[in-house]
Amino acid sequence: MGLKEEIAQLKRERDAVILAHNYQVGEIQDLADYVGDSLYLSRQAAGTSARVLVFSGVRFMAETAKILSPEKTVLLPDREAGCSLADSITADELRAWKAQFPHAVVVSYVNTSAEVKAESDYCCTSSNAVKIVERIPSDREILFLPDMFLGEYVRKKTGRKNLHLWVGDCFVHTRMRPETIARARAAHPGAELIAHPECGCASEALPYVDRVLSTDGMVAYARETRAPEVLVATEVGILHRMEGLNPSTHFLPLSSEAVCPFMKRNTLEKVRDSLRDLQYPIELPTAVMDRARVALERMVAS
Ligand code: 13P
Ligand code: SF4
Asked: Which helix (H) or strand (E) holds 41?
C-alpha cells in the first residue's frame, strides 16, 4: 500500500480529519480535508464531528484547535513545529505589560501560546484583526501583541492612537522590507503585489502594495485576478494553491527565501506516523484552556 492510501485508511480507522495550513507542502495540502488560513482552520476545528484532528501546521494552531474542541484528540505530527512570532512574548511578559496599563484591552494575535491567550481579552488573526479592533470602544487603550507589523497596519487602518504595540515579529516575514519590494518591482515592472500583514514591508510600504491580505485572502484574490503577473509577499507554500486555482496568472514569490522551517517540519510520513501512533497529542491545563477559550471564541465569531 502506498503512503497516501495508508493515510486514507488510518484516517477512516481513527475517525480523523487532517487540517493543513496554506504554507504546507503541496502533497500535504492535496490530501488534507481542510486547507486554509488560521481563522478558517480554527472554525473547522471547532465545528468538525471527527474524533481525531491531525494539525499539519504549527503548535499554536494545534493548541487553538484543542482549546476550541477540548474533548477531541488533537495531534501535532512534529513536536518541534513552533513559531518564532509566538515565542516573542511569554505570559509573564504580558502580565508585566498589563500591570503598566491596568485598564487596557488585550488583543492577541492567534500566533501566541495558550498561556498568553489565557491572559487576553480578544484573539484575532490576520483576517479579522482590523474588524476586532474597530469594535473596541475608541476611548479604551489597547495592548496589541505580538506582531508589530500587523499592529502597525491595524493602527493605520483604524486610525487609533491608543493602540500600544509589542515589539515582536516573524523572522520569515520581517525580512521582506521596502527594499525587497523595490528590487522586485524593478525586475517585474507590470506585476501586481500582494502582501501578508506580518511582512516588514506591509505597513511602511503600504502605498506600493496593491493589497494587504491574510493567506486565505490571497487565495480568494488568486481565484479572481486577471493580472498576468503577481508578486506574493508571504511564505512560499501558498503558491501551490494559488497556481492550482488560476493557471493563467504567473504567481511569483517576493522572496524565494521566505520559507518557514517550522511549517516545513511536517511531511507525509509524519502525518502517517501521527495517525498510526496517535502522536503528539496536545495537552494543556484545563484552567488555561478555559480562560483562553473566551478570547478565542470572540475571534471565531468575528
Ligand atoms: P494566516 O492566518 O494569514 O494564515 O497567517 C498565519 C501565519 O502564521 C502567517 O505567518
Ligand atoms: Fe510563525 Fe512566521 Fe512561521 Fe507563520 S511564518 S508560523 S508567523 S514563524
From this structure: helix 38-47
